[in-house]
Amino acid sequence: MPRPRKVKLIHGMPIPESRTIFKPSGLSMDNLSMNTLTIVEFEAIRLIDAEDKSQNEAAALMKISQPTISRILSSARKKVADALVNGKAIHIEGGDYKFVSKIFTCPACKSQFPADDTAMPQKCPKCNSTGILASNDAV
Q: What is the 3-state secondary structure (H, E, C) of 48-61?
């Protein structure tokens, strides 16, 4: 019996519900093939490619291992590349994930990290600084 899939942490809805399909302009959806990108794959691309985090940083934020995020990222990039090269639509939906309710920021090293509960963390996991702020309090 295989091990159950680990739930990945997502830091807020990545895109508005009304924008979950991206397609080449000028073509109707009737004439297009579609690649489905999971929300977990979208989050991996967002963290690593758009926010320029390392795979280790992104894996820590999502509470998964670096090899796992590497596999997720590879799958996501192949789907995006296939859509761009072959003129396919991309639909973003699904996956094994859970939203993180609170993100904290360390003013000293500027790193952001989730907390497992709603209590304020005592110190930064990266630099051990103690001046942690809730992200909506960070400037």
A: HHHCCCCHHHHHHH
Secondary structure of residue 92 in the 3-state scheme: strand
Separation between Cα atoms, residue 71 and residue 69, nearest integer Å: 5
Radius of gyration for the alpha carbons in the chain, expressed in angstroms and rounded: 17
Q: Is the pTM of this model over 0.85?
A: no
CB neighbours (10 Å) of residue 35? Answer: 19
118-134 mean pLDDT? 78
CA dihedral 95, 96, 101, 103 (to 10 degrees): -80
- The encoded tokens of residue 69 equal 């995020």
